[in-house]
Design goal:
- This protein is α/β, with parallel strands linked by helices.
- It contains 15 helices and ten strands.
- It has two domains: 4-37 and 296-377, no CATH class; 43-292, Alpha-Beta Complex (Spore Coat Polysaccharide Biosynthesis Protein SpsA, Chain A).
- It has a seven-stranded mixed β-sheet, with helices on both faces.
- Helix 4 links the parallel strand 1 (57-63) and strand 2.
Length: 383
């Protein structure tokens, strides 16, 4: 192997340095994020509170024409094995049979509280207003947030509330972040959704475990009602329809007031998006609030995609120039792919995701590099 061009040709030298730096950054990322999630030491496991010391909890949902979901899923929340809790459902401008389903359920479950809003009195769009009404209507300080389509992943022990509450390891903890997975189906479209959800979840869960929380998932999230009210809730971003979970956590989560619960009993799950169009629309809604992140969070979230881009671009250019030994390029690629697969395997095992996802993760990574670029260039219209 001839290494002379690396030292004499400026272009080869620059590309070699770029390849080495991007490989280093990616290896650090795989170790600090998916690998860390896979080996995360959950402090909630040590928080073995007895039934007598378990605090009362209010589960809050906002529903808008979600009658079918409530009919099949709400019972999993109402039947939780917990000594003192209520479920608050805000029926917001629904035109289907949501109110009748809630009325029938409330006859059998006295701890179900329903709040019906027949008109949009404040003019704001989105679910932040009904969520605020639900939170103010809750009687307990510890809140658990979910969505009508969510169910606990463990539907045998009914211990979702009990497991999430263990995240309040001390009085300083005000926010508890949980994980929500996507139901598995044997199809490429489902695998793409699985990987996208894995990549997103690993990012915010690992960041919070590193004491730098920046967002959460409203499909499995908890915080204290008093903390929500003391920080004026959603008042500073009511005008933004999306981000009821994202923006409140982003603005108020700190290294000492946020904890993470990663036990299977605390996971929730949702059905995958049925069509590519609906999934694409959901992903647009998910990133629409990212422009309000701080400068440092934006930079942090750009590190991985830029490193992936520079890694493959510099490798391809070096291979095309023919001035860099191809054996070394093959070895570098093998190291990157092997460490990526191993680290993602740890995360998928911890989050109970099928192995096919970590096996195909290198291909999915390239796909989402392109897809997310277009998603950022063509965001949701203001209308």
């Amino acid at each position: 192997m001839d290494f002379t061009p690396i030292l004499t040709d400026p272009c080869t030298m620059v590309l070699s340095i770029l390849l080495a730096l991007s490989l280093l950054v990616l290896c650090l990322h795989y170790g600090l994020f998916p690998f860390r999630v896979g080996h995360f030491k959950d402090a909630s496991r040590k928080n073995n509170k007895t039934s007598g010391s378990l605090p009362p909890v209010s589960v809050v949902l906002a529903a808008q024409n979600d009658g079918e979901w409530l009919r099949s899923n709400l019972v999993y929340l109402l039947e939780q094995d917990y000594p003192d809790f209520e479920v608050v459902v805000v029926d917001y401008l629904s035109t289907d049979d949501t109110q009748f389903i809630l009325r029938l359920l409330s006859e059998n479950y006295k701890h179900l509280k329903t709040v019906t809003l027949h008109e949009n009195v404040n003019g704001y769009q989105g679910l932040k207003y009904p969520f605020s009404i639900g939170i103010k209507s809750a009687k307990n300080d510890i809140l658990l947030l979910a969505e009508p389509e969510c169910i606990p992943m463990d539907i045998e022990q009914f211990s979702w509330i009990r497991s999430m509450v263990k995240g309040y390891t001390n009085d300083r903890v005000k926010i508890v972040l949980g994980y929500c997975g996507i139901a598995y189906k044997p199809s490429l479209f489902n695998w793409l959704q699985q990987y996208d959800n894995l990549d997103y979840s690993v990012e915010y869960l690992a960041a919070a475990s590193l004491r730098h929380p920046f967002t959460g998932n409203g499909r499995n999230l908890s915080y204290r009602r008093s903390f929500f009210l003391d920080n004026d809730g959603f008042i500073y971003h009511y005008y933004i329809p999306d981000g009821a979970d994202d923006m409140f956590v982003n603005q108020n989560a700190r290294r000492r007031n946020t904890s993470v619960v990663l036990t299977p009993e605390a996971y929730t799950t949702v059905m995958p998006q049925p069509t590519l169009r609906e999934w694409h629309h959901y992903r647009k809604h998910r990133i629409v609030t990212h422009r309000f992140y701080s400068f440092w969070v934006k930079c942090f979230r750009l590190i991985k995609p830029l490193s992936v881009l520079f890694f493959y671009l510099s490798g391809a250019l070096l291979l095309a120039l023919g001035t860099f030994p191809w054996q070394i390029l093959a070895a570098v690629l093998a190291v990157k792919l092997a460490w990526q697969i191993v680290s993602n395997a740890q995360a998928t095992r911890r989050l109970q995701i099928k192995p096919i996802i970590f096996i195909l993760s290198p291909l999915f990574e390239i796909y989402f590099l392109i897809a997310n670029t277009f998603l950022t260039i063509f965001p949701l219209s203001k209308k």
